Amino acid sequence: DIQMTQSPSAMSASVGDRVTITCRASQGIRNYLAWFQQKPGKAPKRLINAASNLQSGVPSRFSGGGSGTEFTLTITSLQPEDFATYYCLQYNSYPLTFGGGTKVEIK
Amino acid sequence: QVQLVESGGGVVQPGRSLRLSCAASGLVFSTYAMQWVRQAPGKGLEWVALISFNGGNDYYADSVKGRVTISRDNSKNTLYLQMNNLRTEDSAVYYCATDRDDYWGQGTLVTVSS
Questions:
Q1: What residues of chain A lie within 8 A of the CB of B101, using their CB?
Q2: What is the pLDDT of residue B4?
Q3: Cβ of B17: how many Cβ atoms within 10 Å?
Q4: Mean pLDDT on A50-64
Q5: Dihedral angle at the C-alpha atoms of A55, A13, A41, B110, nearest 10 degrees?
Q6: Using one digit for the tens of pLDDT, what is the confidence trace for A76-93?
Q7: Alpha-carbon distance A62 to A54, whole Å?
Q8: In this structure, how many other beta carbons lie within 10 angstroms of the beta carbon of residue A85?
Q9: B37: which chain A residues are within 8 Å (Cβ-Cβ)?
Q10: Strand partners, A5
């Protein structure tokens, strides 16, 4: 099975900051990676698929990059509504696997 | 609009069984692969299982393989998750979701406790 290691597990940031979250796969997954945002008590929301393809309606301050085993989610100019937990998901092969999550908190 | 509504959660003793349902509306259900994702209290997301659009293929997480069966009834626009021999570590909110287009239900809570 493919293990997804996400870092950091938590971070504090201020409104306007640039934030980068990293996800590493235990083996190559091409670009079969998605990023999700989850707020407390809510279902996850997909932000990006295919590593860098922004979903419709997602603000352009979110971007994704990488391929193979190293991936990043970047939020330029963090907004108050962006404080949430973020997860990566590999869908290159079954079983699908999520990263452990990154909680972005207000500094 | 698209709605996915889970039901069937509750409190169950270890070793017992439970069947979750997910009723879909507002989409052509029979064209979507469907999946279950769970989240234990205070923990991260865990993918559980996926079934192809016509039910011909299914896939499972190692943690549930052999104890859980995903199925669907396209005539009823409903997805199911049959969970047997439940363990305390199966306690979680269970979400159903489409494979594409990112539709999710609100989740149903399963608590396995004696």
A1: none
A2: 98
A3: 11
A4: 97
A5: 100
A6: 999 999 999 999 999 999
A7: 8
A8: 20
A9: 44
A10: A24
